[in-house]
Amino acid sequence: MKRMKPIAKWGGIALLILLLLLAIVPFLVPVEPLENLQTAQAVAPPESQFVTIPFEGTDGIEIHYLADEPQAEDEPTFVLLHGSVFNAFTWNEVFDFFDARGRVIAYDQIPYGLSEKLVEGDWNGRNPYSADAAVEQLITLLDTLEAEKVILVGNSYGSVLALETALAYPERVDGLILADSAVYVQESMPAWVMNLPQVQRLGPLLGQMIGGSEAFVRQTYLDPAAIDDNRMRLTLIHTEVAAWDEAMWAYLQEWGTVPLDVSAKVAGVAQPALVLTGDGDAVIPPADSERLANALPNAEYVVLAACGHVPQEECPTQFEDAVGAWLDGGAP
Are 211 and 240 in contact (CB under 8 A)? Predict the structure, then answer.
């Protein structure tokens, strides 16, 4: 036992030194501002459109979107909702498919894509990155663009936003198309950890790591080699816009501590739904999509062969065939 005391003593000293390093080192890491960043308008391709929507406590939020012109009053309106890190350009391969069947609106949820990069000090009161704010911003955008009733098409986290909106505003949502939904994914961090001075110090660097990760984008495909330079650039186009890393950190602080959880409420979704999954999804297990389809009262379930997490990009033909068959079958 006597020999244990020196070991315990030195172990305690080592632990103390480690804790001191963890407390001090983050303040020694340089956090340099990113250079050569531009405005969203300077980065935007010709098809991009921008609109400022009202949001209490701000001067308005500028939203980037892609849309066609309404052709008829009775045509359906499809609203395309991207997943985390992605943006409206994730729907490029299937945009014309939806366009041929109705009106299409695809937009960038903040802080992704080319929508506004709100940072601390840009709002008073309610956090614009909160889950309920995301629903409100979607509805406000629809009001601004005069889209009354819609079919929500969501991929990954976009499916979660679609379901939450269908529950909060059932009169506005005619149907749901949910691809590789993240409904049962719960990733959160205790608020006290996020508020540590050391974490706050490294916040923009964490934003850069998460928001600028090519590795994450590659794992969303069953065949990562299918992601060419142009697709990668479009996916991470937000990294070309000023203040993107600070905005990403502001978003992560809210979203990471108070994540959107709709899993316990899906049985209350009355709208007809199509639930899709790629059988090779390495981000969301296909079993989660099957579970969601079984939990929804009025859902059809389709598995897309040899496809990953973003079927609208990697397997657009299969995606269109499944969606077309569902729509032609009378739902909604």
Answer: no
